[in-house]
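Pasting as-is:
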Amino acid sequence: MTGQKDSSKTAPSEAGASGDISYSLRIERRNVKNINIYLRPPYEEVLVTAPRRLSQGRINAFLQEKEDWICRNLRRLREEKQENRLAGPMSREERKAYEERLKDLLPSLMEKWEALMGVKSRGFCLRKMKRAYGVCHIRTKEITFNLWLGAVPEALVEYIVVHELCHLREPSHNRHFHSLVSHYLPDWKGRKRALDAFFSEQAGAGQTDRTETDMA
């Protein structure tokens, strides 16, 4: 974590975290006795309140100690919101239309990015999932795409394709993985936000997208 300021005003910073969790950190000095951490919807910002006279070093040490807890709970809360967002009903007509569109769109995207990335999957399948836009099955090298992707613009489908194919190079959501995604798709964060916004509009609430890697 970097950039925290000793101030009663907000002090934002991008906090690098384990896995695929990132968040904005805000530290506020208040008339409190202890350091407190608040995770609030849409779970993109972490608010930390600390005693006015507590040293910044003590605050940094506390946040470092609690980083795993912050990441673990942000992930859980975001997954719960993701599940709520993708758990809605899909009509028979929608399912048919989404399947047809993705079966037409995905083969060319997969072929394009497999060639550029030097990887090769063993194909893909489509399934309506509650918690993920895509799942890369590392052992079989097969990729499952969520049927709901049939409703979004091609550029956002492409982001999920690149994300999942990168897992064939790096199974974990670590820094190396995100550097790969950034290398092949420099604007991936903007596409991620757009994908989030698309489904947030459908659900009426802001949430964060998620992808998975199946190590089995």
